[in-house]
Amino acid sequence: MKLTTTVIGLCLTQLSSCQIAPSKGHYDVPGLGTNKQALLDTGGTTQDMAIAMVETEDLNADYPLGDGKTEDAAAFGIFKQNWYTLRNASQEFAGQSASDYQNGAALNENLAKDIKALHDSQDSLGFDTWAAAQRNGADGIENTNTQDIQNYKATVEWIKGQIESDVKYQTDDTRFWVEVKSI
Questions:
Q1: A Pfam family in this protein (predicted)?
Q2: pTM to 2 decimal places
Q3: CA–CA separation, 134 and 85 (whole Å)
Q4: H or E segment at 177?
Q5: Phi, psi for 28 (deg, rounded to 5)
């Protein structure tokens, strides 16, 4: 089973101009199709599915609280949105402080809240700024055009394209992956 690993050089938008092509591909994860269907049934999109595939292997949020991080760096739900983004762009957590980060755990248990928080954040910030915040929190918002952020957006777009290339990929056990630098 191939798990997403760390790699520094990632370039997807124009593979012909890249010096190093990223490792990417697909494999089956038993039960993933059920979780994909649940995401779609709960108002998620293929872009949401792609984001979740970048962040989790099986579209579950069964990882340690905050993904082992605290305060604004803590991540929650199947999209692993960081607490900074959640408290600044999601209606559910608006106005909360960095020290309230444990409240984000509600997203690990409730897919509808998780999807709503993602959509709130993206609606509030726009996708490009959301992606920057997703990767680097406040620093990402201050500098939205780093190579890492561009790589992340290209990764989401590539996975989304694979999911949309055949309707079966929206509900089967196929997981698409690209090696992305861990943050």
A1: Glyco_hydro_134
A2: 0.88
A3: 7
A4: strand 174-178
A5: -90, 140
CA–CA dist 47, 32 (Å, integer): 16
Terminal alpha carbon distance of the chain: 22
Q: Indicate the burial class of 89 (C-beta count within 10 angstroms; 0-12, 13-18, 19 or more).
A: buried
Q: How far apart are CA 15 and CA 42, in angstroms?
A: 34
Q: What is the DSSP letter of 31?
A: T
- 64: its two tokens: 């340690």
DSSP 75-103: EETTTTEEHHHHHHH-GGGTT--GGGGGG
If you search the block for the tokens 């406040």, which residue do you land on? 138
Residue-wise pLDDT tens digits, 95-150: 999 999 999 999 999 999 999 999 999 999 999 999 999 999 999 999 999 999 99
Structure tokens at 138: 């406040």
The span from the CA of 47 to the CA of 157, in Å, is: 8
Other Cβ atoms less than 10 A from the Cβ of 173: the count is 16
φ, ψ for residue 26, nearest 5 deg: -155, 160
Cβ-Cβ contacts under 8 Å for 58 (sequence gap 6 or more): 29, 31, 32, 35, 175
Sign of the C-alpha dihedral, residues 119, 72, 35, 58?
Answer: positive
